[in-house]
Structure formats: C-alpha cells, structure tokens
Amino acid sequence: MPIGDVLPEISLTLGAVAIVLFASFVRQRQHHWAAVLALLAIGLGAGLTVAQWGGTPRLTFSGVWALDGVALASKLVVLIAGALVVAMSPEWMRTDRRHGEYYALVLFALLGVIMMASASDTMELVLGVLLSSVASYPLAAYHRGWAPALEAGMKYFLIGALTNTLLTIGVVVLFGLTGSTGYPDIAQALATDSDRLALTIATACVVLGLTFKLAAFPAHAWMPDVAQGSPVPAAAFLTVIPKIGAAVALARFVSLLPPDVAWRAIVASISVATMTLGNVAALRQTDVRRLLGWSSVSQSGYALMAIVVLGVSDQALPALVFFLASYAIANLAAFAVVTHLRGRTALDDYRGLARHAPIAATILIVSLLSLVGIPPLVGFFGKLMLFRVTLEGGYAWLALVAVINTVVSLFYYLRIVAPMMFGSRQSAVHLLSGQWARSAMAVAGLLLIVGGLGAEALSLFTGSIRFAL
Amino acid sequence: MILTAALGLPMLGALALAVSSRWTETTARRCAIAVSVLPVLLLIWAWRQFDPQGALFQFVEEVPWVPSLGMGYRLGVDGIALAVATMSALVFSASIAYPVDTKHQPRQYYAWMLFLQSVSLGVFLALDLLLFYVFFDLSLVGMFFLIGRWGHGQAQLAAFKFFLYTFCGSLLLLLAIIGLYQSVEPHTFDMRVLIEQQPLAGAGMTAALVFLALMLGFAIKTPMVPVHTWLPQAHVDAPGPVSAILAGVLLKMGTYGIIRIPFAMMAETFSRHALVIALFAVASILYGAFVALGQRNLKRRIAYTSINHMGYTVLGIAVAGALIQDTGYARELALVGATVEMVAHGLITGALFLICGSFWQRTEEYDLDSYGGLLRQAPWLTAFAVLASFASLGLPGLAGFVAEFHIFAGTFGVYPWLAVIGVLGILVTAALFLQMLQKVFFGAMPERWAQFEDLRPIEWGVLAVLSAGFVIIGVAPAFLLTLVEASAALLVGGR
C-alpha cells in the first residue's frame, strides 16, 4: 500500500484523534490548546503536501486517489483556509463546554473536503462527501441552545440528506452502466456505446449531489441560514471550504463524460441560475451575515463558469483553482471581521464602524471589494482568469451574464460599505477580546492585498496544473 | 523614474495622511497641498524633456508584474497623455488647495484626494492595458468615498449611482480588454504591441463586439448621450473641489481611453464606425447644450455643459479616425483639437466647479433665480466666473476657442454637414452662459446676500492659476500644440 501518498491525510486524522483525547482529559479553560494542536496537524499536512508537489500527475491506490496538480493545489488552499478558520475560533468557542471537540470536527470536515478534491473513484467521492457532511452538520448547529443555529443545522442536514441520497443513486446507476467505480474505467466504458438515458440520469444525480456542497442552485437553500445562524467561525468554514472540494470533484467528474452528453449546457445553466439567484436574493437583505451567505451562493455560480469551458480552454482548471483560492481568502477575511465584531449581524450595527474600529472596517471593506473584483486585490485576478477562460472557450454570453451579475453584486456590497464609511454611531463597538480572532483577521486582510500584488506567484502555482486522468 | 515618482508620491502622501492620527487640519492640509504640487512639477519637467521628433512613447518604464499573464507595470507617455496628465495634476493641486468643509475628517479627505490624484495620473501614464484598468477602477473607489462622505444633499445615493453606473462600463471594458489580449500571440497587455499589431483588423464579428464593449465602457465614463444619466446627480451632490476633479479629470479618462485603445489599437474597425460615433457626439453636443440651457440649478447647468464639451472632444476623435482618403491633415487637426479640448475643459470646468464650491460654502444654495447683482458684492468672484464662462463658450483668445476651432476645422474637412449642425451647440452654450452670468451677477441683489463675502486670497489664488492656464493656451497655444501635434501626426498618419 503506498501509504506515503496519503501522509497529509493521515496527519489530519491523527491530529483529530489526538484532539478528541486531549479534550476529554483537560479542563475546559485549557481547551484552546486544542486549536494549537489542530494548527500543528494542518501545518504538518500542508508541509507534506508541499513535499508531494512537483511529481508527475498520477493516480494511486489502484487508481482511486488522484495525486495531481489540481488535487494538491486545492488541498493546500483547503488547508490554509482551514488554518484561518481554526485561528478565528478559540475566543468565540471559549465559553462552549465542548470547546475542544470543535477542532476535531473541523479536521474531519477538512479531510472530507480533501477526499472530494482527490477522489478518482465514485465510491471515494461519496465517502468524501459524506465525511465532510457528517462533520459539518454538528459544526453548523454547534450552539445547540440557540434556535437559529439549530434551524441552520436542521436545514443543512435535511437538504444534505436528500442530495447525498441523489448522489448515491447517481453513483449506483453509473456503476450499473459501466460496471466499475474507478474513473479511468468509467471513462473507458463511456467512450464506447452506452445507454444515454441512464447516463443522463446518473449525471444529473451526481451533479445535483455536488451542488449541495457547492451551495449552487438548486441545493443552495441552506447557505444563508448557515451563514446567519451557525457560529461565525463555522459559517466561515461552511461557506468556503466544502466548495473547493466540490468544484474540483465536479470538474473531475464532468471531464469523464463523452461529448454528446450536454453537460456544458447543464453546468452553464446552473451557473447562471446560481449567480443570478444569489445576487437577487442578496439585494434586499438587511442582515450582513445572511447577505454574505447569499453572496457566497452567487460566487459558486462564477466558479462554475470555469467548469463549463473545461477542455475547451487549456487554462480552465488553473482559473478554477485560482478563483476558488481568491474567493476563499476574501470570504474568510469578511467572516474573520464578523467574528472579531462578536458576530454582529444587523446592518445597523455596522454604521459608523470606520471611525470606531478602523482596522476591522478597512479589512471588511477590502474583502468586499475583492469579492466584487476591484483591482489590484486578489479577487480581481480570480475574476480576470474566469472571464478570460470563459471568453476563450467561446462562452461570451456567459461572461456577459457574469458581468451584469457583478454589477448587481456591487450594489449590495456597497450597502454594507456605505453605512460603515458614511454613517455615524452613538454606541461603543464591542469586540472579541484576545489575539486569536484579531490575528486571523489581520492575516486574511493582508493576504487579500499581498495575493493581488503577488498574483504572479499564485498564477505560477496554479498555472500548469491538470488532471492526472 | 519621473512618471513613477509622479504617481507614487501622492500615493505615499495619502498613506502618510491615513496613518498619521495626530495631525491637525492645518498640518494635513499643508502636507497635502505640498505633495500634490510635486507631480505637477515633475510632469512639467518631463514636458520640457519631451522630444516631439522622437518615438511615440517616451519615458518608458517597465517592471514585470504578472508575467505569466503578460501583464507588467508599464508607464510611458506620448504628447497627448503628457498634456492630459499635466492638466490633471494641476487640477488636482488646485482642488486640494481650494478650501472646503472637511466635516471634521480632514486627514481622510486629503488622503482620498491624494489617492485619487495618484490613480488618475496612473490611468493617463499606463502603457499596459490591465494596469490602465486597475487605475481606472481604483479611481471609481476613490471618487465613491469622496462623494459619499463629503458630499451634500443625497450624497450617498449619488455616490452609489456613480459607482454602479461607471462600474458597469468598466466591466464591459474588462471583457473587451481580455478580447484584445487574446487576439495577440503571444498574449500580452502591452499597449505598444497592440497599437503596432492592430490585432483585430479584419476580424469581423469579434472585432465589432470588442469595439462595441470598449466604446460603451468609455461612453459611460465620458459621458455621451444616452448613457450620461449618472453625471448630473454626482456633480450636484459632490463638494465643489470633488466636482472639479470629476469633470476636469475623470471624464477625460473616457475620451483619453477612446484615443488610446479603440482609436489606436483598432483603427480599421474604428474607421468603419466613425460616422456613428460622430453622430452620437453631435447628439451629445446638442443635447448637452439644450438641457443645460433649461437648468435652474447652477451646478447642474455646468454639469450638462460638460456633456456638451465632451461631445466636441468625441467628435474630434471620431473625425480623426474616419480614415477617408486625402483628409489626413483635417483628421490630424481634429485629433489635436480633441486633445486641446480635454486640457481646456479640464482647466475651465475645474475653475467653474470650484467657483460653485465657493457659492455652496457661502450660501448652500444653487438656485440661479435666488441670486442677482453679486457683481458689486463680490467683484473678484464675478471676474473669475465671467472669464471662465467666456472661455467655456469658446471666446477667441481663450483655450476653448483654440480647441473648438481645431475640431470644427477638422470636421469640415471630413463631415462638413456634421460641423454645421455641431456649431449650433456653441451658439446655445453662449446663450446659456450669458444667461447664467446675468442671473447671478447682474440685476438687483436680493436682501439675503447682503453679507455675501468675496473670494478669499487662497480662493482667488487657485482660480488665478487655473485661469492663467486657459488664458495662456488661448493666447499662445504653440507650446501645447507642438507637443500634441507630434503624437497626433504619428497616430493619424503613421497608420
């Protein structure tokens, strides 16, 4: 068994186990040390991933596990994002009796997402989706005494149960059709003649199953509730990290399909529906966290643009990973600010923030501008890459729809920015005390600008990645 | 390094102001004025060094930024860019020095102004398409905060509308820029390469779409009728100096962009659509003039004259790009006229909006009918307002005339009938400025303005500098014309 190929994943698993043990024997006051353990495990995992970098793209474990540039790059992005989430948590979770276990759940969820990104086998994919889901449900509802958190968790769970079932049905039909679960075999079997109706059903089911993790239409409805009701660090996690794995998994899956299955049209219409719906719903929100939730629905729609032109434009995969990375940084920065502000959620609470908490306000504004795609922030380069591959792939109309949506999105992002800058407030601003959330916020804010100015490094890092298959 | 210093120093100044929490209003103001003058001096120095017989782009600086995308930090100027950039730097210095109510946030106000100066100069100095876009977008952000925070009336709504509307244009621009980028091999954003290669010549539908997106983006920024509707409210609710920048500098980004990108990089496509653009320009000229005539709000009236004047500029560019046989000289004249109009309009309208700012500081009133007879009360104000108005309506001996003469002389050589219609605009402009002067400064003075204060030394000092600018261009335009003609000849004839 080529155990060496999954050392990063093993380090996460062992880290999670260590945290569970640690948390059961240590007083609650000391539980923030579990965050340090989690960071160590993530750091180790990231280091081991970097060590794997540069090898030839290949499949391992009899072809079920991909070790290619896409998997490694998305793994790194997921791990860095996970580290930021862990760093913004200790002060938020301090009063929770189950503080320590939280980090174990985060690590398990990270592991699930990494499995989704690396899976080169439908069973493996189901396993990744399920692992990430079961670890995420409790994260969403971690404050079990608080009704909105429970509601968010319930909604997340119900939609998840439905779509995970669909995913499994799709995988089963595909198995019945091709007689195998490994991607190389499936691709081979599909290349020759097969039942197109069954294949369409299987494709539809798998795509629908993945839209849940992507928070894309039609399985997006959990996103705003989770963004609003879950603990803010968990919301930061759930609005960002599962998407990365799901988008890569979707890209990997559709690249197997023969050209006569109209998957481009399907993904393109999901993309349009997702970005438009997310934007339109965000327009009238007066709740900042809910608004961020809807905005992250719409951002999933953008990511799908890169999948639409997969195989037509040779830069589609780099653009996808680049966009996901830039989106992750910006969204995490925004949620880090919300964490630092003790999770305040009403738009009115943000009035006049620029004067009372200038650094937090600046970071929030910069992250929102990055989500819109204002240069030279990192989000601009993400959008630039997306527009570029979409135009190159001959989907100019899709790029135009995305442009219109971007203008609409500017409207609601400005609805947060304007009161922060122009409004005035009487009451004092209450911040989370301690250095964890503050540092996470500062690091994320810095990454937004550094990532933009150093876009070359990011693009070199993603520039040559491709699938092993 | 001259160009980097010209746009880098204000940026550093802005950063210093943003982080220095202890500076008083006076210190912040003095520091901002001092920093804002530096780019003017640097650009004047560059002007003196500029060789009209030399290459199209001079003072080129190049540092790779995202080489894998073909993007770099590339700066450089031709005569057109240098003239517009110098004018912009001057308008910024004047606006920063002009007194305004900073609403207890002087540091932030001056920091945003310097930031905006830096990125605006960046737009005119960039030789890289993507860098151009970066500065273009950042100017929107700066202007959004300036209008929203320091404006009056429905300032936030105006700022919103401004940002949304112009951002829409800038995104279309981005798509077009990517289209241009994809069309050269190897892919690059280098403007010099694109101008030389004319990549989309004969590309049919693609070229037409890219061209349409570019023109729409710039038409919104310029603004041309019918996509001008963001302009009046942004102007009316912005503080005086910010309006001066909006009209004097930001609108030029649209026309300058037309010259730099669709005109220079897609000459063939441009010539095919030149007549349509000219028709829209004439529509803007007439519409801007007539609607301005109908306004009773001082600032709104001047705002609409901007639409009219930018119409002249676009007419000049359209004529220059028409590529009709044996009209080379006329087309060059038109392009020179368009550039001079940009410079002249920047200085003149800058001065007019600063004067509006003085009115707001004293009375918080823009209604023309509520004024009258201010000539005796405020002779200095009257003098500068009359001078700027005459310059704006195109009186010979002032900068506006030089520009309009060139444009219409050029247009006569290419589209004579359009020139005849367009000249009507000048007539209406004359009427509307004379009526405005008469309403505000002559006749009987209402009681309530008995305490109206004349211009303070700093105010008339600033206005004197701007007025000197458009008087000198009007009387002795040679220094500007030599600079512009050299580049215009290369752009029009060298193709």
From TrEMBL, chain A:
<keyword id="KW-1278">Translocase</keyword>
<feature type="transmembrane region" description="Helical">
    <location>
        <begin position="6"/>
        <end position="26"/>
    </location>
</feature>
<keyword id="KW-0812">Transmembrane</keyword>
<feature type="transmembrane region" description="Helical">
    <location>
        <begin position="291"/>
        <end position="313"/>
    </location>
</feature>
<keyword id="KW-1133">Transmembrane helix</keyword>
<feature type="transmembrane region" description="Helical">
    <location>
        <begin position="319"/>
        <end position="338"/>
    </location>
</feature>
<feature type="transmembrane region" description="Helical">
    <location>
        <begin position="100"/>
        <end position="119"/>
    </location>
</feature>
<dbReference type="InterPro" id="IPR001750">
    <property type="entry name" value="ND/Mrp_TM"/>
</dbReference>
<keyword id="KW-0874">Quinone</keyword>
<comment type="similarity">
    <text>Belongs to the complex I subunit 2 family.</text>
</comment>
<keyword id="KW-0520">NAD</keyword>
<feature type="transmembrane region" description="Helical">
    <location>
        <begin position="33"/>
        <end position="53"/>
    </location>
</feature>
<dbReference type="InterPro" id="IPR010096">
    <property type="entry name" value="NADH-Q_OxRdtase_suN/2"/>
</dbReference>
<keyword id="KW-0472">Membrane</keyword>
<feature type="transmembrane region" description="Helical">
    <location>
        <begin position="197"/>
        <end position="222"/>
    </location>
</feature>
<dbReference type="Pfam" id="PF00361">
    <property type="entry name" value="Proton_antipo_M"/>
</dbReference>
<feature type="transmembrane region" description="Helical">
    <location>
        <begin position="234"/>
        <end position="255"/>
    </location>
</feature>
<feature type="domain" description="NADH:quinone oxidoreductase/Mrp antiporter transmembrane">
    <location>
        <begin position="119"/>
        <end position="408"/>
    </location>
</feature>
<protein>
    <recommendedName>
        <fullName>NADH-quinone oxidoreductase subunit N</fullName>
        <ecNumber>7.1.1.-</ecNumber>
    </recommendedName>
</protein>
<keyword id="KW-0813">Transport</keyword>
<feature type="transmembrane region" description="Helical">
    <location>
        <begin position="394"/>
        <end position="418"/>
    </location>
</feature>
<feature type="transmembrane region" description="Helical">
    <location>
        <begin position="156"/>
        <end position="177"/>
    </location>
</feature>
UniProtKB/TrEMBL annotation, chain B:
<feature type="transmembrane region" description="Helical">
    <location>
        <begin position="458"/>
        <end position="481"/>
    </location>
</feature>
<dbReference type="Pfam" id="PF00361">
    <property type="entry name" value="Proton_antipo_M"/>
</dbReference>
<dbReference type="InterPro" id="IPR001750">
    <property type="entry name" value="ND/Mrp_TM"/>
</dbReference>
<keyword id="KW-0560">Oxidoreductase</keyword>
<dbReference type="GO" id="GO:0016491">
    <property type="term" value="F:oxidoreductase activity"/>
</dbReference>
<feature type="transmembrane region" description="Helical">
    <location>
        <begin position="306"/>
        <end position="324"/>
    </location>
</feature>
<protein>
    <recommendedName>
        <fullName>NADH-quinone oxidoreductase subunit M</fullName>
    </recommendedName>
</protein>
<keyword id="KW-0812">Transmembrane</keyword>
<dbReference type="InterPro" id="IPR010227">
    <property type="entry name" value="NADH_Q_OxRdtase_chainM/4"/>
</dbReference>
<feature type="transmembrane region" description="Helical">
    <location>
        <begin position="275"/>
        <end position="294"/>
    </location>
</feature>
<feature type="transmembrane region" description="Helical">
    <location>
        <begin position="336"/>
        <end position="360"/>
    </location>
</feature>
<dbReference type="InterPro" id="IPR003918">
    <property type="entry name" value="NADH_UbQ_OxRdtase"/>
</dbReference>
<feature type="transmembrane region" description="Helical">
    <location>
        <begin position="28"/>
        <end position="47"/>
    </location>
</feature>
<keyword id="KW-0472">Membrane</keyword>
<comment type="similarity">
    <text>Belongs to the complex I subunit 4 family.</text>
</comment>
<feature type="transmembrane region" description="Helical">
    <location>
        <begin position="79"/>
        <end position="97"/>
    </location>
</feature>
<feature type="transmembrane region" description="Helical">
    <location>
        <begin position="241"/>
        <end position="263"/>
    </location>
</feature>
<feature type="transmembrane region" description="Helical">
    <location>
        <begin position="201"/>
        <end position="220"/>
    </location>
</feature>
<feature type="transmembrane region" description="Helical">
    <location>
        <begin position="133"/>
        <end position="150"/>
    </location>
</feature>
<feature type="transmembrane region" description="Helical">
    <location>
        <begin position="414"/>
        <end position="437"/>
    </location>
</feature>
<feature type="domain" description="NADH:quinone oxidoreductase/Mrp antiporter transmembrane">
    <location>
        <begin position="126"/>
        <end position="426"/>
    </location>
</feature>
<feature type="transmembrane region" description="Helical">
    <location>
        <begin position="109"/>
        <end position="127"/>
    </location>
</feature>
